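Lecture 7 notes: from sequence to structure.
We start with the chain below.
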Amino acid sequence: MTDNGPKNTETSRFDYKKAMPRFSFVAIIFTIIAVAVVCKALYLMTVKRGYWLEAYDYFNSKFKAKVMPAVRGNILSCDGKLLATSMPEYVLFLDFKAMRESQSDTLFLQKIDSICDGLQRIFPEKSAEEFKENLMEGYNANSRHWMVNGMTKVNYSTYSEVKSLPVFRLPKYTGGFHTESLGSRKFSYGSLARRTIGRFNGRNDSATCGLELYYDSILRGENGEKKLNKVLNKGIYKVTVPPVDGADIVTTIDVDIQDLTERALLDELCEIDAKEGVAIVMEVKTGDVKAIANLKKQPNGSYMEERNAAVGNLMEPGSVFKTASIMVALDDGLVDTTYRVDTYGGIYNMYGSDMKDHNWKKGGYGMLTLPQTLWYSSNVGVSRIIDERYHKCPEKFVQGIYRLGIADSLGIPLVRTKPKIRMPKKNSRGTQYVNWSKTTLPWMSIGYETQIPPISTLAFYNAIANNGKMMRPRFVKEIRKDGMTIKEMPPVVLRPQIAKPSTISKIQVILEQVVRLGTGKAAGSKSFAVAGKTGTAQVASGKSGYNKGGVKNYLISFVGYFPADNPQYSCIVCIEKSGMASGGLMCGKVFHDISEGIMAQSIKMEAADAREEDALLTPTVKDGNIAAAYDLLSWLGVQTNSDWDGSYANGNPIWGNISTEKDRVTIRKGQDTDNSVMPDVKGMGARDAVLAVERRGVTVKLQGRGKVVEQSVKPGTKIRKGQVCLLRLA
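Predicted structure tokens for the same chain:
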């Protein structure tokens, strides 16, 4: 059967003989191009290789890689509060050459007066005329990097204000406004524990001391890198190595205990006009350092943290060392608590040198039991006990001291100062001591001829409180990254048992008696038992000895723990002063204030338990920052109005007035005040008033307590450079 259907007209129209030459021609052209590309590539890789390598080096040197600094990690308190953090700060510059090249210099000259008025509002310490003179000097010099306000560093908020001014708001290569960003370290609690936290210089990118220095590699992270590439005649930075931000370290510092410790120490230093003082608070079971304060008197009479004397000060410990001496004799079984020693009239000749008790002019203590030698801190009693038992073999006594761990290197992440306690050595024939005299042992037994930093003394007493287990003082608990713990620093036991359990039990009883019956009464508390030891040592002044210019310097101290029946914290207080000094009265008072404050913080009560039926439930609120007041009142559940149109989102602080009625608080927003005039701060609390005035460049002096009732510079007065305002509070 034949097919009579339609034929494929497309196939019939294809002319094979005509199409194939065309395909061949196209294939030959592409082949020639491909061969040319390969040949050109081979030519560039061989003949022109040197030229292109030089070109690469040229452009690589012209567009050098730029460092992308990593964000430095934070330092946190034991409960996660921010102690130190990194925040960018800016130094402000103008590029007048770029301004001329973009022809925006005409606009700059037209707006120079309004620019300078704006700068004066932002930086009221300078006048608009001073700013104009400075900017015109840079303009005439055609400087590319002219400082707008000297080396003054500003935060991002201030930078944004400056950026909003005429010309300054233009793009960088048009208006010429640019900045130099510096990593600045901010401390949330001011000088609190500053020497322990350490210092970091953002301009030099270097840590200088404290935890900042020891953990610098962890906090620092790893810098990244970005490179400028030329794309369509525009420079575009491309990240080649991303930065790795630093990790956070969580310290053992408790902000509340640290603040309490510093205030208690400072009050006493000011009261007795001391040269220097240190105080450390440690948790007994873990060795965690909860507070560490180092305050030294400055030429202007104030006190500040200058060096970490608490861990690096090598000084003769004085009578607090007597506890170690008696412990060695008890542990060696050479005496017991019933042992009696005659202190005579409080003065006893030791191999040609008089050993004296503090009350020798009053006739001394006479016959004492071994515990009483510590109760009353008798130099004669302790030195006679040790000399009689170890005079022929002093190395046995020093070996016993070493066994207690008081001479150990603690390995803490700060100043690594090891105690210096001399070990007796004999000559090659073994017939005579070469570094020892007959008086060395008696004086060493009462804390002289040894050098021990306060932290080591505290670690020893902390071990007594911990039933003989010596803990390494711990400053850092863990390292965190992005909120996750990446490394823990658990408590470290340095010595599982520094002495026999029986020795520890006996010395614990004696130390509690020192506070209850002896020289440490000032450190005691009516609410809980305290155990510890007082210390007073004369301080040598180089070649002048112990008596410089007729005035004696003393290092006085008190070290102990509380509560004595269930030790939770140990604490040492050391003060250096001239003239009359008493470790029990002066350092004991600081210890008392610290221990009372810490134990009071641990008492938790429900607010309802303390409420009386007729008590006023609406708090009295001072005028000032109404944004902060509103948040606090809302949290307390106090009824207040919300129609004052403001919140933290709108900025903080927001100033206004607050009135209290029977069952509610009314908030009224104040009028915005020009930064160049004095605000009205009457009715505000001290903190808000100081903030409102000092942010305008005026120095504030306070008088009295309460809320501001009078200000020496009237509201609305034009602010002058260097102006001082006295605020009287009542």
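Points to note: The radius of gyration is 38 Å. DSSP finds 23 helices and 32 strands in the chain.
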